[in-house]
C-alpha cells in the first residue's frame, strides 16, 4: 500500500489557504484517477484507489489528516501502522515557503525546514519519507509567515497553482510506480513555475 498524505487544516474556513495546498493536490489526484469517495479513518479523510503504473496496478491510500496541520504525524502513523509499511511507502504533499511560487520539488528524507507538519510526521514515522514540496514563496518577514500561510491563494496565483496540481495528478502514475525522477521532470515540464518556462 502506498500512503499519500496532503497537509492542511480541516475546517471550511481554511479550504483555499496556502497551507491547504496538500489537501487540494490530493483532491486533484483522487478526481483524475477515479478514487473512491472520501470517508473518515485514521483521524483523516481517506480515499482509496488503484493506480495503473509501469510496474502494474498499485493500491494507494490518499489521506488528508484531520488532526490539524501541526499534528499530521498522528494520522500518518496510524495508517502506516495499520498497513505495516515504513516511511519509504509514504509521500507527503505540502506547501513550501523556501521555494518560489509554482516551483515543485520531490525529495526523500532530510530535515523539516521549520515546517511543523513535516516535523510531526518525522517524529512519528522517521524522516525517510518523500516530500512533494509545492512552492508558495516567502512573505519576506518571519513574523508574517502565519498570516501568509493561513491566507487564501490570491486569484493571480490560481493560474500556476491549478496548472501545478493538474500536472501532479496527471503525472501521478510515475510516482506510484517508483519513477521518482521521471515524475519530477514531467510535473516541471507540464507546469513550469512562473518566469521559468525558458529554463
UniProtKB/TrEMBL annotation:
It comes from Glycocaulis alkaliphilus. Belongs to the PTH family. It is an enzyme of class 3 (hydrolase). NCBIfam families: pth. The record marks 95 as: Stabilizes the basic form of H active site to accept a proton. The record marks 9 as: Discriminates between blocked and unblocked aminoacyl-tRNA. Keywords: Cytoplasm, Hydrolase, RNA-binding, tRNA-binding. Gene3D superfamilies: Peptidyl-tRNA hydrolase. Catalyzes the release of premature peptidyl moieties from peptidyl-tRNA molecules trapped in stalled 50S ribosomal subunits, and thus maintains levels of free tRNAs and 50S ribosomes. TRNA binds at residues 14, 68, 70, 116. Its EC number is 3.1.1.29. Monomer. One of its GO terms (biological process) is protein quality control for misfolded or incompletely synthesized proteins. Pfam families: Pept_tRNA_hydro. The gene is pth. It catalyses: an N-acyl-L-alpha-aminoacyl-tRNA + H2O = an N-acyl-L-amino acid + a tRNA + H(+). This is Peptidyl-tRNA hydrolase.
Amino acid at each position: 500500500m502506498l500512503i499519500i498524505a496532503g497537509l492542511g487544516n480541516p475546517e471550511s474556513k481554511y479550504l483555499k489557504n496556502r497551507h491547504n495546498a496538500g489537501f487540494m493536490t490530493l483532491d486533484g489526484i483522487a478526481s483524475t484517477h477515479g478514487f473512491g469517495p472520501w470517508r473518515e479513518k485514521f483521524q483523516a479523510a481517506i480515499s482509496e484507489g488503484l493506480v495503473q503504473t509501469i510496474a502494474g496496478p498499485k493500491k494507494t491510500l490518499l489521506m488528508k489528516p484531520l488532526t490539524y496541520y501541526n499534528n499530521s504525524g498522528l494520522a500518518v502513523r496510524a495508517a502506516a501502522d495499520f498497513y505495516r509499511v515504513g516511511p519509504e511507502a509514504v509521500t507527503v504533499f505540502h506547501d513550501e515557503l523556501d521555494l518560489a511560487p509554482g516551483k515543485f520539488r520531490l525529495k526523500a528524507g532530510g530535515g523539516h525546514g521549520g515546517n511543523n507538519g513535516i516535523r510531526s510526521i518525522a517524529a512519528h514515522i522517521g524522516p525517510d519519507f518523500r516530500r512533494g514540496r509545492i512552492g508558495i514563496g516567502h512573505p519576506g518577514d518571519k513574523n508574517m509567515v502565519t498570516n501568509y500561510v493561513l491566507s487564501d491563494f490570491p486569484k493571480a496565483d490560481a493560474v500556476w497553482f491549478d496548472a501545478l496540481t493538474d500536472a501532479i495528478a496527471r503525472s501521478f502514475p510515475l510516482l506510484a510506480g517508483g519513477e521518482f525522477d521521471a515524475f519530477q521532470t514531467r510535473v516541471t515540464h507540464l507546469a513550469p513555475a512562473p518566469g521559468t518556462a525558458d529554463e
